[in-house]
Amino acid sequence: MSADVTLSLPERRRLRLPAMPASIAAASLWILLMVAVALCAHWLQPYTITQMDLSARLQPPVLFGGAWAHPLGTDQLGRDVLSRLIVSIRVSLTLAFCATLLGVAFGALMGLAAAHFRGPVEQVVLVLIDVQAALPFIILALSALAFFGNSWTLLVFLLAFYGWERHARVVRGLAMAANGQGYMMAVRQLGAGPGRLYARHLLPNIAATLVVSATLAFPEVILAASGLSFLGLGIQPPNTSLGNMVGYGRSYLSTAPWVLLAPAVVIVLTTLSISLLGDWLRDQLDTSGR
Amino acid sequence: MPLLELRSVSRTYARGGGLFQAPTPVHALSDVSLSVARGKILGIVGESGCGKSTTGRIALGLEAPDGGEVLFDGAPMPPEGSAAWRALRRRMQLVFQDPLGALDKRMSVAAQIAEPLEIHAIGTQETRAARVAELLRAVGLRPDQGEAQPLALSGGQRQRVVLARALASEPELLVCDEPVSALDVSIQAQVVNILLGLQRQLNLAMLFISHDLKLVGTIADEVAVMYLGRVVERGTPAQLFAAPRHPYTQVLVSSIPDPFRTTPRPRLSGEPPDPGNRPSGCAFHPRCARASEHCRRTDPGLSLRADGRAVACHHDLQETPA
Q1: Residue A186 and residue B103: Cβ atoms within 8 Å?
Q2: Which of A70, A152, A157, B14 is the most exposed place for a label (fewest CB within 10 A)?
Q3: How high is the pLDDT of residue A7?
């Protein structure tokens, strides 16, 4: 009997910390690398992003006949692709991070308001959610940017609106479910006001789901930002972003594909990694939640 | 003056209903009048779906009755969620059936017991910690167990935590909704003893809701037997046990196992009826051995008898002995 008990202990411990599949480990590593690059962009970039070398225009990357002076080659103005890529990663990730955070906060607030007030407030929130879901984001963004001009703040807010409706739905559903649960009823019964109820009890209990929801929205925000930059909106030259690089590189697709491919690969790998990680997180929460 | 008084309270829920179909009204409670005095225990018994829990929720003002009124300390119950209602929580508390469900699994037990103190601004930071330790000791837990998360405690310990939290603000009324039915029999006795000890010590008025007639009979000062949203008999446990006057009470009392019983046990036939489809006349008549044509037509209504108890039956067992 005692032998059984001692044997089963390490097994339980292994169950509680599930093994990470190789793809998830790789995805996490890539995300860590991207975060490190974004944080240290200032020290990592070999050249500044506007430094032109017209004598060394459209140089291929190292393994395709280029020189080590420009490991990823140069673009049509002789600017170093690696340096521009590093700065773009920082710009795009910061933008996506701020926008996602703002989107989750706004969505959670709307969802909570709907679940708390019910009645007309809930109906209004639901209509807003449906409007947001039905409106093509690019058209909304195009018109807003065309009217108000390009600015970093406007861009962050626009991208935050991309996806808030999903967080709002998730939070509304979870809050309504939690309101029917014993612990929420118990705390309300103690005389707690809505502030304590939601901040101290509801949010910590639904945070895991909200984090997954945010993780799944993050790559889409990166793609949306890239799409806007590609269309010439969003981040404007001389500043650079991943979508911006793809957009300006497409004219040289046949002669100098590296100008476009380098940022494209980064976009694909980053969004894929975050999606994989989000899916995995969600599965983990599903199976070990209760 | 009773601390809590329910005056002919009714509560109707709507059930089902679709696009072209009107919802069916379900009479969870109809014309229920009860009162609890300070320091007294009123037991409410009945089978599932008879409206016991609804009575508890209405008594606490968690739900508003459709008809009748609820008086606490002589004043009508403020609407749920209002500031007055929230302030009143300090004086009335609830002990839940499912202690794990009633606790936040992400918070330490001590933090949860301290919540009523913080909410009602009782004491300071330092005195609260001492009060939590005192409460933990009062319910038979060690103060160091306050650091534990609810999942690390056993069922009985969790229920004691719920009890400690309910008593933190020194309430005058405690509603216990099946407080021990989720616990092992051996633990039930412990928790009930703690509950009773504290009830006497704090002079608590208590509404004790349970389906366990024997348990209610041993602790309550007065017992109300409910059937389909109505009180069918009310009296002291001694009266009810010695001479049940409503046929339903009689069946309930005789269902308590008694090794020395010699007479055959009266049995209840049929399923508990659907509250959405209430039988005509006396709601108990389809399952009653002595039902007559009169019972099928007219509802007897609860009437007070000479010995101070109230019975709702045309064929009062005392008057027409079987």
Answers
A1: yes
A2: B14
A3: 42
CATH 3.40.50.300 in chain B, residue ranges: 4-91+171-311
CA distance B181 to A158: 54
Total number of domains constituting chain A:
1
Task: Report the distance separating Cα A231 and Cα A208, nearest Å.
Answer: 35
pLDDT per position as a tens digit, A188-227 = 888 888 888 888 888 888 888 888 888 888 888 888 888 8
Q: What are the Cα distances from residue B121, in Å, to A191, B115, B162, B235, B321?
A: 11, 9, 19, 40, 58
* Closest chain A residue by Cα to residue B85: A191
Mark yes or no for CB contact B104/A205 under 8 Å: yes
Does domain B4-91+171-311 correspond to CATH entry 3.30.310.50? Answer: no
- Chain A residue numbers touching B101 (CB-CB < 8 A): 181-183
Mark yes or no for CB contact B104/A183 under 8 Å. yes
Name the pTM for this structure.
0.76
Instruction: Give the range of the structural domain holding residue A220, as residue numbers without chain letter.
Output: 24-48+73-288
Phi, psi of A267 (to 5 degrees): -60, -50
Tell me, yes or no, whether A17 lies in a domain.
Answer: no
Cβ contact (<8 Å) for B105 and A183? yes
The rounded distance, in Å, linking the Cα atoms of A260 and A252 is 8
- The partner residue sitting opposite B86, judged by closest CB among A181, A182, A191, is A191
Let me know: does B42 contact B206? Beta carbons within 8 Å. yes
Of A191, A193, A201, the CB nearest to B104: A201
Nearest CA in chain A to B151: A290
- Cα separation, A71 vs B11, whole angstroms: 77
Average pLDDT rounded to a whole number, residues A174-187: 86
Q: What is the ipTM of this complex?
A: 0.79
* CA-based nearest distance B65→chain A, Å: 17
